[in-house]
Design a protein that fits this description.
Length: about 230
Amino acid sequence: MGEVVHGDYRNWVSPTRLDSVTNYECYKGLYSSFVDKNFFEIAYSFNRQFGPDGMYRNLPLYAFADNHDVNRVASLLTQPAHLFPLYCLLFTMPGVPSIYYGSEFGLTGKRTQNDDSALRPCLDLAALQQNCPQPHLPATLARLAALRQSLPALKLGDYQQVWVNHEQLIFARSFLGQTVYVAINAAEQPVEVQFDLFQPADSFQDRLNGGEQISIQNNHCRITLPPCWARVLV
């Protein structure tokens, strides 16, 4: 795996070179789409990279929200609650998701012009578990990781945009007959959305939220998205 910031990732990822490289384009869109209330930004990157004519639709790029060189994502977001839908997006987008050590607890950290040591602290795990900045985040990440492992479409599927608005994004991932619809909500209140399906279905099961059943009428789905959260429909 290689760290590549600029340029065409296809120059680096190939059977004779690297298995994967860092996806810095989507890194930027992941946090700024929440900060600016502009999901059109990350939707554009997803389509450009992974859509039907995407440049990198067959490349397993390394997806991340922060790392050893950039400010921790908890310091970039203006609303701490946005950590949860952001990580939902990270674990359902195309690519290989990664968590920078300590960020599973919601740690903050910013670099200065001359020093980036705040990005690389020595952590006392026992103390963090007792005094976690985001107590529900570690278990949430474990749920998301298990969900991704259980759904081949999330690991290996293609990408199709379904619907996008300033604070919501819906997309579909498909692989070997399995289609998963992912709906992300960055708003601080519930939002009702509706969309047409790519393939006929009678109902969905929300695998992220206790298996809730979602009925389909005339190939049309209407759902309410919880605030600062997501749905993963199978």
